[in-house]
Amino acid sequence: MTTTLPTPTLRDPGPGLVVLDPDRARLFQELDQLFTTIADELSGQPVLGPPLLPAQALARLDYFRNFPHLGIAAARFDDAAVTALSSGTDVGQLPADATPATGYMLPSATCYGLLLSLEGAEVGEGLRLTAVGRCFRNETHYEGLRRLWGFHMREVLYVGTQEGAREHLDRSKELILGLAGRLGLELGFEPANDPFFDKDGSRARLTRLDPVKYEFTAPDGTAIASVNRHRNFFGERLALTSAGATAHSACTAFGVERWVHAMLLAHGDADRALERVRTVRAEHPER
């Protein structure tokens, strides 16, 4: 006899912090299975990235020149704070210097950890990796599943030749739009408006002149996926080579919670959205 358990009432812990209830959690899991299918189509080998990134390594990649306002640093309590807390001191009463920096940052994108792990590598004709990681961003505001302190990002990273990077992005676009159509999602496709700290800086101006990132957007404007052309930037900064030449790289990214949001927007509730996802998955059971 199967016992039907009651659905718990779950409350979000704070602004920008969301707990997915069982229905939305199942939708999340099923969607990521579909993204994994796309990663398989792109020949991405599964890996797991690190939970923290060295700040000095990110500095070498111009992260703090471009996105210092998004970064969230990892800190820890010093010895005096640990003693005070263990004696019952309220955490809000600790001095500002009670949490010294560790030199590590929370990742704001999954690909950073993967790229750093490849430093100095020769990748032959091309290497493809896929991982899902929790990413964190300090935003100006937070809104439902559209904008969170922390969210999951499934990425498929390509490192190799310039032509290989172009083919990776072309194929990714085709696969994403095909999946969206089967899921009943109408997506826009447009150049990204990345939140550079200095919008008049050289990197921001170059991006406007020659867009390297395109986003797939839901009808309400939520960017739920992107394709990103890195040119040879990471190849030069990380001494990555492909067949002896400086490597080019590109990545395909899915914001998993944002896809949950888009499916709820398109289908009205989690039950109908989940039914649509499972129908799509059943069309290709071998995957």
Write the layout of secondary structure elements.
Layout: H1 22-41, E1 45-46, E2 53-54, H2 55-60, H3 63-66, E3 73-75, H4 79-86, E4 101-105, H5 111-117, E5 126-136, E6 150-160, H6 162-183, E7 188-191, H7 202-209, E8 213-217, E9 223-231, H8 233-237, E10 241-242, E11 245-246, E12 248-255, H9 256-267, H10 270-283
Parallel strand pairs: 1-5
Antiparallel strand pairs: 2-4, 3-4, 5-6, 6-12, 7-8, 8-9, 9-12, 10-11
Helix pairs in contact: 1-9, 1-10, 9-10
Give an account of the 3D structure.
The chain is of the alpha+beta class. The chain folds into two domains: 22-71 and 107-283, BirA Bifunctional Protein, domain 2, CATH 3.30.930; 74-105, no CATH class. Helices cover 37% and strands 22% of the residues. It contains ten helices and twelve strands. The chain has helices at 22-41, 55-60, 63-66, 79-86, 111-117, 162-183, 202-209, 233-237, 256-267, 270-283, and strands at residues 45-46, 53-54, 73-75, 101-105, 126-136, 150-160, 188-191, 213-217, 223-231, 241-242, 245-246, 248-255. The strands form three sheets. A seven-stranded mixed beta sheet has the order 1-5-6-12-9-8-7. Strands 2-4-3 form a three-stranded antiparallel beta sheet. β8 (213-217) and β9 (223-231) form a beta hairpin. α1 (22-41) crosses α9, α1 packs parallel to α10 and α9 (256-267) crosses α10 (270-283). The mean pLDDT is 92.
